[in-house]
Structure formats: structure tokens, C-alpha cells
Amino acid sequence: MRELAEQSNAWPFVEARKVLKRIGGKTPEKGYVLFQTGYGPSGLPHIGTFAEVLRTTMVRRAFETLSDIPTKLFAFSDDMDGMRGVPDNIPNKERLTEFLNFPLSSVPDPFGTNKSFAAHNNERLRAFLDEYGFEYTFVSATERYKSGQFDAALLKVLECYDAVQSIMLPTLGEERRKTYSPFLPVCAETGRVLQVPLVSRDVDAGTIVYQREDGKKVETLVTGGHCKLQWKPDWAMRWYALEVDYEMSGKDLIDSVKQSGRIVRALGGRPPESYTYELFLDENGEKISKSRGNGLTMEEWLAYAPKDTLSQFMFGKPTAAKRLHFDVIPKTVDEYLSQLSKFAEEDDTARLRNAVWHIHNGEPPQEDIPLSFNVLLNLASVCNTEDKAVLWGFIARYAPDASPEANKILDDLIDYAIRYYRDFVKPNKRYRAADERERNALEALIESLDALPAGASAEEAQNQVYEIGKRFEFDPLRDWFRALYEILFGQEQGPRLGSFIALYGIGETVTLIQRALAGEDLSAA
Question: What is the largest CA-CA distance in the chain?
């Protein structure tokens, strides 16, 4: 498998080979290869945060297939960052306005469950990562700064102050350049993280002197949590201090990666290998944001689909922008089921390209799943039921060997399908009457289906649907299928009709068409 992995063009293996080349195939002096992901707990964890941990884990697992060198993954929380604004999607937000510019780890928890806002968000992130079974080490910026573990690196930044400024100042506006310093003192009197000009510095003493807004000059250590770094120098300092080997980031941080990379070189370190992924967009095509709370949350996705389907969504084309909304869930579920089905028949080379290899670390579950998620959705829709037993009644007739006990994945999918149908399909169903040509075609379809032998296959039913569409000259043919979906299902899209007819039953399908032609209300059970 290792030899095949060395040639695989699956993106996690491409990335893993970059890391292996970086270290020259040898164990680094620190004793392991370090993968890192960053999280800013200024808002609730969103699906993009999870995506970064998942994708980095996929690269890590690919690396472990290529090499026996030990690895670690740090999930780093920048929880000492000053709160610049109060997020929109939290309770009691008005109470937090007085804590603007306080370190997030010093801001009270608006949810009332933890000692700070950062602690609440960090806990939420860890709980989700733990539920997924990620192997990681959680690292808090506050703890690292205050414990002194970053002291040596902070003193190095102080020593290289002029070099850092020469990198950062050209990237700033004229007014910002006048007051910019990589060091952000934490005021001993107010507890706030201050953006103030630096008056002087003493490398030997490890101190800086800054001027407050009231004109008072204050001397403070840069170590021990008395100062925090601006985030780009902070990123570079973190790479330097921890000797990070790999970290990915979003497209919006391309320039930041370049600047932080230059800073870490100025400190005498080496930037990690990097990977730039595209951003997730909400239903309006806007970037999802922790503070705004737009886009899907992880919990929302998991309410309507198995957790492995979220991994499927994250695996595909990380460098392409993706619209992340509820309507992508059914398609993603079926993509996952398709990849799972293919895996058993694939050779090892193809398996290494298959998403489920990376989702399940080479050992995906084995189960024959005879129905797609879309077919289950439409079965619930046509039956107008939220009763799981009703759906299993149809499924047992279609696949006699299937059962809730023997087909756990399928049984779970039925629960998700019912929930998705109830919340998204049912409220938006819009049936329409058939026009004259469609009516004639539907009557002909009834005759064709009635003529099929008992136990006719899904393929035979599908062929009849095709033939009727061609006979009545629907051009393009998809107009015929769209008409069937709108008239029979109350929606513009639907399942592969042959599969649905075989599942629902030929007689039941004929009755459904007859009811539609008679003008009955199909939204009624």
C-alpha cells in the first residue's frame, strides 16, 4: 500500500509527500512531525473550523501511510486575542460591550456555562472533535503565553523587532504605520489588550515601553502573558516556537501566509508547508462567518445526515468554493453512498483516491445499501408520512433481505430522510396540474406500467418512462421528467423514477398517477 500511496494523486497524499520531502524522510529533532490547525474563538465554532481539522487529519493519515515517523496534531486556539466586536449570534450580547478589547479568555461567558467566552467556544470545538474521534492536542494561546512557554520566542521577536517592522509596515496604511507595533500590551489596570505605539524597547531586559491613550508611558515585560502579538507576527511566532511542519488556511489568508512566512524566516525559523483551500459560502454566496453565524452549523448538518457525509463534503475539491446550505445535504449523502458502494469492487490504487478511504482511514464500513437518500426522501414525500414503519414496509418488499437490524446505515438514513422531508421538502411542495400533452403522456404511462410483468425491475420501469417521453416528443427529455416530478411529487427534482417505481410498487405508482389526473390533493396521505 505504501508504494501505491507514493504515486497516488489524491490530494491528501500529494500534501503528505510535501511534508515528507520537507523533513528529508527523517524524524525532526523535536521527535515528531507537527500538523497544526488554528481556531479564533471570537464566535461559535462553525463548519469551516471543523473542515480545517478534518482535512488536516486526512493529510496526517496519508503521511502516516507513507512513513513511520511519529506525528502530532495541535488544535490551537487564539483565545488571548482581544474581542474586537460582539458576535451577533449569542445571547445577552449587550452585556459584552463593556468587555471589548479584553482577551477572549477574560470575557464572561454569555451562555453562563463556562468561566469565559473563549472557554465556552473552546469546549464546543473540543466536544465536536471528540465526537468525531479526532486524535489531537488542544493548545490554548492564553495558557502558552502566561505559562512562559512562548517566552523564548517572544524575546526573539523583540530581538528581531526591526526586521519584523520592515515586513509589516509596507503592508499597512499611512496612519496605521505611525502607531503599529507587533507587541500588544495587556494593560495591568484594565485588563484590555492595547493597540498602542511603542516608545522604546530593551532587548536585554525583555521589556518595552508604550504610551497609553492618556499619555502615560508604561514599561512592561513582553513575556509571561504581559503582551500578546499582533496576529500575523503571532502566527509566525507560533510556527517558530512550536516548529510547525504543516498548516492549511483559507484563500482569504494568502497574503497573511506570505507575511508570516517572511517573519518566521527573520526569526531564524522555517515556515510550515501550506495548503490554500477555498472558502465556504452561504445560500447567498457570501463567506460564512463565526460572528455572523451564517451558513450551516455542524449540529445542523448532523440533524439531517450521518456524520461521515459531512466528511464526504469536505474531502471533495478543497480548492473550489462551495455553497454550504441545507440543499446540498441530499446530494452529498448520495455521493457518500456511491463511494462506499464502489470501494468494495475497487483495486488498491482506486481505493486510495476514494473519499471513503480517507474518511475511514482505509477501513470503511461494509453494508449493502439498496436505496439512495433521494429515493427515501421521495418515498416519504409520496407516502406523506413521518412513520418509519411505513417506509420500512415498502423497503422490505423491494429488498426482502433488508431489515433495521441487518442494515444499520439504511435504518439511520430513514430517520434522517424523514426529518429532512418534514423540515425542508414538505413545506415547499407545490403540485401542479398536467397540461394536455402531459395528461396524454401520463395516461400512456399508466398503460405501459400496467403491461409490465409482476416483479418488473427498476430498469424495465425506467425504460417505459423513457419511451413515453420520447413518444410524446418531449425535447429535451428532461422536461418530461421535470413534469413528472412537479405533477406527482410537488417539486422540480426527484429520484431516478425506475428505482422509485420498483420501490413504491407499480400498482401504487399507477394509482398515484390516476389520482393526479383526477385532480386529487396529493399532499394528503
Answer: 94
Query: Which residue in 176, 189, 290, 287 sits closest to 232, CA to CA?
Result: 176
- pLDDT per residue as tens digits for the range 224-248: 999 999 999 999 999 999 999 999 9
- The pLDDT of residue 455: 83
Over residues 382-389, the mean pLDDT reads 88
For residues 507 and 95, give the distance between their C-alpha atoms in angstroms, rounded to a whole number.
63
CA 486 to CA 95: how far, in whole Å?
50
Distances (CA, A) of 151 to 145, 227, 228, 316, 367: 7, 10, 11, 40, 53
Cis (ω within 30 of 0) for the bond into 476? yes
Handedness of CA 426, 429, 433, 437 (dihedral sign): negative
Q: Exposed/middle/buried for 141, CB within 10 Å: 0-12, 13-18, 19+?
A: buried
The closest alpha carbon to 40, from 322, 221, 252, belongs to 252
Looking at residue 42, its pLDDT comes to 84
The residue among 442, 464, 450 whose CA lies nearest residue 506 is 450
Residues paired with 110 in a beta bridge: none
Under a CB-based contact definition with an 8 Å cutoff, are residues 263 and 236 in contact?
Answer: yes
For position 521, what pLDDT does the model report? 86
Is-contact 252 278, C-beta < 8 A? no
SS3 content of the chain, % helix, strand, coil (to 5): 50, 10, 35
Exposed/middle/buried for residue 293 (C-beta within 10 Å: 0-12, 13-18, 19+): middle
Q: How many beta carbons lie within 10 A of that of residue 22, not counting itself?
A: 15
Cα gap 319→311, rounded to integer Å? 15
The Cα 267–Cα 258 span in angstroms is: 15
The pLDDT value recorded for residue 445 is: 96
Please check whether residue 458 is in contact with residue 399, taking contact to mean a CB–CB distance below 8 angstroms: no
Give the span between the Cα atoms of 421 and 376, in whole angstroms: 9
Sheet holding 273-277, edge to edge: 137-140, 71-77, 33-39, 246-250, 273-277
Task: Produce one character per residue of 320-348: b if its CB has 16 or more CB atoms within 10 Å, e if not.
Answer: eebebbbebbbebbbbbbebbeebeeeee
* CA nearest neighbour of 89 among 117, 63, 114, 61: 117
Average pLDDT, the chain: 92
Q: Classify residue 393 as exposed, middle or buried by CB count within 10 Å of its CB (0-12, 13-18, 19+).
A: exposed
Percent of the chain, pLDDT > 90?
Answer: 77
Measured CA to CA in angstroms, residue 262 lies from 153, 265, 272, 380, 383 at distances of 15, 5, 12, 57, 62
End-to-end CA distance of the chain: 53
Q: Which residues contact 23 (CB under 8 A, 6 or more apart)?
A: 33, 69, 245
The string of DSSP codes covering 93-148 is GGGGGGGTTSBGGGS--TTSSSSSHHHHHHHHHHHHHHHTT---EEEEHHHHHHHT
Mean pLDDT to the nearest integer, 421-426: 91
